[in-house]
Amino acid sequence: MMLQPPPMLSGMVTLGPDRLAEMGLVRTFQRTSIFREFTALENVSLAIRSRRRLNQALFLSRADAQRIEDEARAILAEVGLAGNERAVANNLAHGSQLALDVAIGLAGRPRLILMDEPLAGMSQGDRARIASLIVKLREQMGLTVVLVEHDIGMVMGAAQRRRQGAGRFRA
Fold this sequence. Notes:
Blueprint: H1 17-22, E1 25-28, H2 40-51, H3 62-78, H4 94-106, E2 112-116, H5 124-139, E3 144-148, H6 152-158, E4 163-165, E5 168-170
Parallel strand pairs: 1-2, 2-3
Antiparallel strand pairs: 4-5
């Protein structure tokens, strides 16, 4: 009697968010997924604790707490939020909230970041700032960035490779 492999249940493989994060994949959404009542520093610190699997720990040593805070401050500085560490997330401007969302993602130490319409609803100034951040993610931080965005001009400016074919445009 030959053993048969189990039948496929579907054509998709589903991975949970923890597994995706472990694989180095993070995402940002058109609507940010920040904790609005927390400060920027608390938001990023919580993400670092999650990556280190310390979310269940009621108490941390002073040394661990300081390392987490230092890392969170460095990430906030990378996304242009230095000086806003103690600002409550809900009080930040829309562009700063998106930068905070990116910072939360960076706390997971990703290799790939998916961004869904990062410029949606932003002022011209915020759009330029976030477009620069996207280029920085790719060029200075070495991340692969996958964008879904309607502002083709920004996509063209941020894209490393562009390809067009079969009536479809991919940047």
